Amino acid sequence: MSKAALCSDRVLLNDWHVIADLTNLSPGKAFNTRLLGVDLEVRYLHGDCDDEVVRSESGEHVRSARRYGFLWACLGEPERDIVFVPEAEEADRYLVTGGSIAVRTSGLRAVENFLDMGHLPFVHPGYLGEEPHTEVAPYNVQMTESDEVLATECKFYQPFASPSAKDGFLVNYVYKVIRPYTVALYKSNSIHKDRLDTITLFVQPVDEENCIAHPFLCYVKDGTGEAAVRSFMQLIFAQDKPILENQVPRRLPLDPRAETPIRADAVSVLYRRWLRDRAVSYGAIPARL
Ligand SMILES: [Fe+2]
After folding, report:
1. Cα 239 to middle of ligand 1, angstroms
2. pTM of whole model > 0.85?
């Protein structure tokens, strides 16, 4: 791999990031990846405590942990625990890792795309939207007490919202940005419409202009099965990937004047402001003062 810009954002260096889906690792076989511009080598051994993650250049050890079917790493001193996903503890859900999808763009762009309802009928026609149902109705955005960006009362018509869908319906959505590179969505289950399926997208910032999306799905058991949930997610993400890779510039502009906000972008406007306030610059084009 070529040299990449290193990260100086403490909030990112001292946080946990997914660096691999455990199903992609083979016992005893080395695995190379990159996090925040740092090349890492995973020496994946046996058991729960034997993972070894080192910086490829120096051999220096990096903190690592397993959770939710992923291998995690923190390059600095962890200031917070790995993001807690309460739905992962509910016995009546399928817990599925959605595959690791490499995307040539900033991970911040991947998060913002995940928040964008406006693209659904155009990028995922016949699945997550369809014409003429293209208007994004007003919704609420706010900060939570835990300092997360929360969008509620989002509603969107979807012809085929999930693999168990029998017909189209108005799907309720909630979005939550939990960390700069971690975002979750909650949407009505197609069979049990009063329950919410959850997708948490853990985005690995490979460097400023490359990321790997690691989706973690907690879907209400509705007879679909894990394999169908996984392949639906991969089909949807395969539609997003070329769109994301065509966005210019690859880093996310944080200047409020950089891209004209419209009402449907209320959650991304708040997300960008939240990144600015936290001095997150990695993967971004910082706002001019
Ligand atoms: Fe999409």
Report:
1. 7
2. yes
